[in-house]
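Board notes, transcribed. Complex of a protein with 2-acetamido-2-deoxy-beta-D-glucopyranose.
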Amino acid sequence: MECSTFRLTFIFLAIICKAHITKSQNLSCNSNDLTALNGFRQCVGSPVDGWGVIPDSECCSWAGVTCDDSTVTQRRVIGLDLHGRGITGEICESLADLDQLSTLNLSHNYLHGFLPHKLFQMQNLEVLDLSGNKFVGSFPLHIHLPRIRILDVSDNNLVGSLKSTICDRSHSIESLNFAKNWFHGEVPVNFGNCTSLQRLFLNGNSLSGSLPEILFQLEHLRELQFQDNGFSGPLAERIDNLSNVVKIDLSRNLFSGVLPDVFRSLPKLEHFAARSNKFSGQLPPSLMSSPSLATLDLNNNTLDGRISINCSSMARLTSLNLGSNLFRGLLPKNLSSCHRLNDLRLGHNHLSGAIPSSFQNLRALTLLSLPRTEISDLSSALRILQGCRNLSVLALSMSFREEEMLRHADLLFPYLKVFVIGNSQLKGSIPVWLRGCKNLQLLDLSWNQLSGRIPGWIDGFDFLFYLDLGNNSFTGDIPWSLSELRNCINSRRSFPPAGSLSNILILYRKGDGKFLAYNQFWSFPSILDLSYNKLNGPIWPSFGNLKGLQAFYLENNQLSGNIPNSLSEMRSLEHLDLSRNGLTGEIPASFQKLTFLSTFDVSYNKLSGTVPSGGQFLTFPDSSFEGNIGLCGSRPSLPSCQSQPPSDELPNDEASTEGTAYSQMAFGIGAAVGFIWTVSLCFLSGWVLDEGQRSR
Ligand SMILES: *[C@@H]1O[C@H](CO)[C@@H](O)[C@H](O)[C@H]1NC(C)=O
Ligand SMILES: *[C@@H]1O[C@H](CO)[C@@H](O)[C@H](O)[C@H]1NC(C)=O
Ligand SMILES: *[C@@H]1O[C@H](CO)[C@@H](O)[C@H](O)[C@H]1NC(C)=O
Ligand SMILES: *[C@@H]1O[C@H](CO)[C@@H](O)[C@H](O)[C@H]1NC(C)=O
Ligand SMILES: *[C@@H]1O[C@H](CO)[C@@H](O)[C@H](O)[C@H]1NC(C)=O
Ligand SMILES: *[C@@H]1O[C@H](CO)[C@@H](O)[C@H](O)[C@H]1NC(C)=O
Ligand SMILES: *[C@@H]1O[C@H](CO)[C@@H](O)[C@H](O)[C@H]1NC(C)=O
Ligand SMILES: *[C@@H]1O[C@H](CO)[C@@H](O)[C@H](O)[C@H]1NC(C)=O
């Protein structure tokens, strides 16, 4: 009984199944569409993953193909989404024969060649995304895409002007993306005919001219991205017409003049950025009391006057960057009522006075950057700021000049990850309270006048990978415990458990005025810099443990003893400078196995013996070895080891050698191995600064 029920069910299922197969065969994809798709794949010249072999006519089941759900006629292809499939080659016009196509997404492949003009004549196309390829040539002049809503050709190599008929004949377009190409010329006035436009991306081109006022007629505009071009002229008051705008980015252009006081008319504006332009004058009151604004970035302009802000109305503000301007006066007390503020950068201004005590109420603050100001009273500043319990990044370089570092042990910054106060001529010693900053990852106290011993408790920082104490007056031994820094022992760093900060840009400012930007502070290289101090005693062999360290600077101290052989275990090391100490003995031959080493300097010590000649030693300049009494080797600048025993070598007249050494010492980096070049740029002496705080 049961058995026959089972059989019946089986037969029934088989019938359903057959019927289904027959049905879909009847409704296989339209033959024109099939031809067009096969034409496309022949053209691109690389196989498309998930597409049947040529006789297969079931194109509706091919990967990325969407057909309509017609049940009576052959099904038509209405969507083709092949983004990010590694497709190479050109696309030819046959694709335009898909005359029912409404969505075409070929973004993020390796397509090249010109844009096929016929693609820009497709009557049913609503979405066209060709971004992230290698297309060349110009944008088509004659465009007839009556139904287009989204058009994206960003991130290609397109050139020429933006002139086209697109806005005259496509009235439903909502998003136009021309970003990251090589377009030049002005914004065509007929963009004013794109009456439905909501988003316009022109960033990352070479466009110029002023912001055409015709854009301000576009009442639906929500997002305007014009950054990284050569736009100039003032920001017209007519921008007040854009009552729906949410985001405006004008950064890195040549805009000038006073910011118009029209922000009251932009009640939806959440993000306004105009960094690195030439805006001048005072902050418009309507901007500094905008109830909708969440982020404001006016870094690196020539704005002046006082920073006055009405936090009672700016309830949504989370990020404020007014750094590198000409603001003067005191820090505004009532800034502390911006309760959501978590990122505050006001450095490189003529601000003075002390940090207002009300700042302790900035409970959401995670980053405070105030370098290069005339702000004073470090001890009260630290006492106040410890009230900001979530503070992770504190960048105070070149402020608080010539003050005493606060010693008291009772300060507490439990979440501090980055503490930077370099080049401030600070006096005193390394403060005990730092010991409680268990999450510290980057500590820069360089270019000050700190003295005393480097405390042994520094190895208690489980996450520290960047320590710069260079150019101070520290004395005594190098604490042995520095060779125990856990985050320098592994080449894979670990990070504190608390949530990571994102979108933080910090520059490494160097002696020669060049700089490097990192998107995150944790992408900084791992550095231990104790150079230019008065340290004595030996270099501990246990430093060989630091297998993750990339740069080790001990130059200009009074270190003695041998160079430990074990340093050749520091296999990530790219830069090692031991010059101008009192080191004796030989250069360990095992250093030849340090394959990443691109700069090495042991000049002006008391070394003797053979200079290794293999591995990276082939690339180091003679100046790396000069000023040692007993070195010999196969270099022309050194006596050969057999013919002239080291004991015969006498130093030249000390004074004159020193004189030339300073100029030659320069930057032997020239000899660096090519692929390390970009990394090595950041290793010249300097100190860490927040983004955009470069000297002018
Ligand atoms: C194209 O596909 C990518 C990946 O899914 C997507 O991010 C992008 O938004 C699509 N383009 C359009 C215009 O929808
Ligand atoms: C808008 O399009 C019409 C034709 O459709 C044209 O006459 C007009 O000049 C265009 N406007 C602009 C600003 O180009
Ligand atoms: C302001 O926008 C409206 C549509 O919201 C438009 O009709 C008007 O022409 C615009 N004014 C200017 C001066 O652009
Ligand atoms: C902020 O405080 C200053 C005095 O410090 C005061 O003059 C100003 O009116 C205050 N501004 C607001 C918006 O509360
Ligand atoms: C600050 O904004 C609040 C709320 O919008 C308003 O009542 C107050 O008058 C403003 N203060 C100043 C000094 O403009
Ligand atoms: C402080 O940080 C914690 C963890 O990231 C978060 O949950 C909390 O809301 C923050 N405090 C404030 C006042 O923002
Ligand atoms: C040491 O710091 C001083 C400023 O305090 C600076 O002028 C000098 O160039 C620095 N020296 C080195 C070698 O970095
Ligand atoms: C500041 O802006 C100027 C142009 O006004 C630009 O040349 C410079 O590179 C910018 N500086 C930084 C650090 O972004």
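Residues 2-26 form the longest helix (25 residues). The chain has a mean pLDDT of 86.
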